[in-house]
Amino acid sequence: MADRIPFRVHPMLATLVDRPFDKPDWIYEEKYDGYRILAYKEGSRVTLFSRNGKDRTLSFSVVADAVRKLAAETLLLDGEVVVFDRHGVSHFQLLQEGSASPSYAVFDCLYFNGRDLRKDPLSERRATLQKLVPDKGTVFLSHQLLADGIRAFEEAKRKGYEGLVAKDLASPYDEERSSKWLKVKVHQEEEFVIAGYTAPTGSRVCFGALLLGAYSGKQLMFVGKVGTGFSRATLRSLCRQFQPLIRKTPSLVDPPREAGLTHLAPKFVAQIAFEEWTVDQKLRQPVFLGLRDDKLPEDCRMPDVKDVKSSYAAD
C-alpha cells in the first residue's frame, strides 16, 4: 500500500564521551531528558514506539495527534517526548508524573512520502525536517546549539540542560550505537538495574535503599545504593512490584556485605541522577527519579569512554 512504511527501525544511539570537543561539519543539539520515540505516520494512522519497541501511542496521544497533522502521507520521525519545567528544561521526572502535556522534540527524519532517507547524510535529513516541523508546538524541531562544540557545551551548562549530542552532518542513520553521534553530559543521569533493597529503618516504610547494578560483560556489578527521591506512595508502589522478583541469591556478583538485604531478579530499570562516579566505580549522591520501562536491564552498562577519547582528542 502507498501509505505504508515498508520497514521498522531500531534507533541510532549516541556514544558517551567524557568532555566537550569541536569538529568541523558537526552540529551540537540539546540533549533532552525524556522518552525516545519513533513516530510512524502512515496515512491517517500514527503509531509511536519506544526504543525497545513498546507501543506508546495511547500514552502520548497528544503527540500522536500532532504528528498526524504534519503535511506528509508517510513519515518516520525520530525524537524525544519531553515535559519542560518553567525554565524550558526537560526532566524525565516531570514526564513520568504526568502533570503536564508532553511535547515531541524531533531530531531526525528517516522516511518521507515513499522515500527511505536512512542512507542520506544527516544534513539532508535535517533539511527535510526543517520544511516539515515547526520550531514550536507539540511537535517541534530539536534545538540546535552554537556551532562551536566547546561553546555549545557552555551554553548547555548555562541553561541547565542535561547535556548535548554532537552529530556528524555526513552520517547516515545507523541502527546501532555509533561514534558519529556523541553525547556529552552536563548533569549526570543514567539508567541502572534494581538488584535488591535494604530493610527500612525509623519511620521509613517498605525499604530503606535500592541496590543498583550495571553490567560489565554478563556480570551485574554493584554500583551503589540510592535512598532518596522516594515519596511514601512511590515506596509502597515499588514494594508491591518487587514482591514477585524476590530471590534467595543475589543477582549482583559483588553484593554489599551487610545484613537485612532482599535480593531481586534483575528486571526493573531505574533512572538515577548522581553527582559523579567515584574512583572505585560507585555512584556519589544518587537520587531516584523513576522507573524506565523503555530500557532493558542488559542495556545498563558500566561506564567506558576511553575507547572514544582518542577519536577526538587530537582535533
Order of helices and strands: EEEEHEHEEHEHEEEEEHEEEEEEH
- Low-confidence runs (pLDDT<50, min 5 residues)? 305-315
Q: N-to-C terminal Cα separation, in Å? A: 48 Å
Share of residues in helices: 10-25%
Average pLDDT, all residues: 92
Shape: globular
Q: Mind telling me the C-alpha Rg?
A: 20 Å
Number of helices: 6
Strand residue percentage: 25-35%
Q: In this structure, how is the largest beta sheet organized?
A: 7 strands, antiparallel
Computed structural class: alpha+beta
How many beta-strand runs?
19
Give the key terms:
seven-stranded antiparallel sheet; alpha+beta; 6 helices; single chain; 16% helix; 34% strand; 315 residues
Element layout with pairings:
Layout: E1 13-16, E2 26-31, E3 35-42, E4 45-50, H1 61-68, E5 74-82, H2 92-97, E6 103-112, E7 115-116, H3 122-132, E8 139-141, H4 149-159, E9 163-168, E10 177-185, E11 188-197, E12 210-216, E13 219-226, H5 232-242, E14 246-247, E15 262-264, E16 269-274, E17 276-277, E18 283-284, E19 287-291, H6 306-309
Parallel strand pairs: 1-10, 6-8
Antiparallel strand pairs: 2-9, 3-4, 3-5, 5-6, 6-7, 9-10, 11-12, 11-15, 11-16, 12-13, 14-15, 16-19, 17-18
